[in-house]
C-alpha cells in the first residue's frame, strides 16, 4: 500500500479551519485529523483528547525535550505542538493526515516532510474575520486584537503554500479541498507516497 501524505491547513484565527476540517473528516474515511497538544486554556465545550490535548507548560516542555512533536510553536501567547506518533502511524497506513497549524509550524513541517500539501484558507475579507471571531465570543477584546494583528502577519506567508482557498461557503471549500486531494494523488511524483 502507498503511504499517505500530510495536508497542512493554515489560515488566520476565525477563518473557519475547524469547521472545514470537521466537514472533510466526516466525508472521507481516508482523512485523519491530528489532534494537537496545547498549553492554551480549554474553551467552554472543548474536550481534552478531542479538540486538543490540554497540557501544562511543564508537560509540554517535557514532550519537546523528548522530541515527541514533529513541530511546535508559540501562537497567540500559548504553545501548540503536533504529536509525532499519530502522524507517522497514519501516513504509514495510507491515510491523509490533516494538520491544522499556524504558519510557523507549517514552515517547520516543510523541512521534514517535503511532499506535504500546503493549503492556506482565506477569509472573504478582514472585516468578516473580525466579526467571526467576535461572534464566537470566546475571546476578550485584547485577544481579539492580538488575533487580528497576527492574521495580517500570517497573510504575508501565503506564498509559502501550494494552494489558497477563500472560505466563503463551507461546502464549496470542502469540494475544492477534495479536488486538491485528487489532484495530488494523480501527481507523477506521488508514487510511493510522500513522507
Ligand atoms: P486556537 O487557539 O484558536 O485553537 O488555535 C490558535 C492557532 O494555533 C491556530 O492558528 C491554529 O491553527 C494553531 N495551532 C493549532 N494547533 C497547532 C499545532 O499543533 N502547531 C502549530 N504550530 N499551530 C497550531
- Helix/strand-derived category reads alpha/beta
Could you give a short account of the major beta sheet? 5 strands, parallel
> Helicity, in percent?
40-55%
What is the CATH topology classification name of one domain? Rossmann fold
**SSE run:** EHEEEHEEHEHEHHEH
**Roughly what fraction of the amino acids lie in strands?**
15-25%
Mean pLDDT level: 92
List the uncertain runs. Answer: none
Oligomer: single chain
Query: Tally of extended strands?
Result: 9
Radius of gyration: 16 Å
CATH superfamily of one domain: P-loop containing nucleotide triphosphate hydrolases
Largest sheet, order of strands side by side? 2-7-1-8-9
Which distinct ligands sit in these coordinates?
guanosine-5'-monophosphate
Envelope shape: globular
What CATH architecture of one domain would you give? 3-Layer(aba) Sandwich
- CATH top level class name of one domain: Alpha Beta
Q: Give the terminus-to-terminus CA distance.
A: 13 Å
Number of helices: 7
Molecular structure report:
There is one protein chain. The chain has 195 residues and is an alpha/beta fold. It has a domain at 5-34 and 93-190: Rossmann fold (3-Layer(aba) Sandwich), CATH 3.40.50.300. It has 7 helices and 9 strands. The protein has helices at residues 17-27, 57-65, 84-92, 103-112, 126-136, 141-155, 170-185, and strands at residues 5-10, 31-33, 37-38, 53-54, 69-75, 78-83, 96-100, 117-122, 163-166. Strands 2-7-1-8-9 form a 5-stranded parallel β-sheet, sandwiched between helices. A 4-stranded mixed β-sheet has the order 4-3-6-5. The protein is globular. It binds guanosine-5'-monophosphate.
Amino acid at each position: 500500500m502507498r503511504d499517505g501524505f500530510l495536508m497542512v491547513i493554515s489560515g488566520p484565527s476565525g477563518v473557519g479551519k475547524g469547521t472545514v476540517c470537521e466537514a472533510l473528516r466526516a466525508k472521507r474515511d481516508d482523512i485523519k485529523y491530528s489532534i494537537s497538544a496545547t498549553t492554551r486554556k480549554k474553551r467552554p465545550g472543548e474536550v481534552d483528547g478531542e479538540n486538543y490535548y490540554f497540557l501544562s507548560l511543564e508537560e509540554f516542555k517535557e514532550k519537546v525535550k523528548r522530541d515527541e512533536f514533529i513541530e511546535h510553536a508559540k501562537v497567540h501567547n500559548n504553545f501548540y505542538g503536533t504529536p509525532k506518533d499519530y502522524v507517522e502511524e497514519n501516513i504509514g497506513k495510507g491515510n491523509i493526515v490533516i494538520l491544522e497549524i499556524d504558519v510557523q509550524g507549517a514552515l517547520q513541517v516543510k523541512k521534514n516532510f517535503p511532499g506535504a500539501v500546503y493549503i492556506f484558507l482565506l477569509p472573504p475579507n478582514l472585516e468578516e474575520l473580525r466579526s467571526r471571531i467576535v461572534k464566537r465570543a470566546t475571546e476578550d477584546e485584547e485577544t481579539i486584537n492580538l488575533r487580528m494583528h497576527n492574521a495580517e502577519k500570517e497573510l504575508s506567508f501565503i506564498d509559502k503554500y501550494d494552494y489558497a482557498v477563500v472560505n466563503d461557503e463551507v461546502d464549496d471549500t470542502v469540494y475544492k479541498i477534495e479536488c486538491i486531494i485528487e489532484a495530488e494523488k494523480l501527481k507523477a511524483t506521488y508514487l510511493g507516497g510522500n513522507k
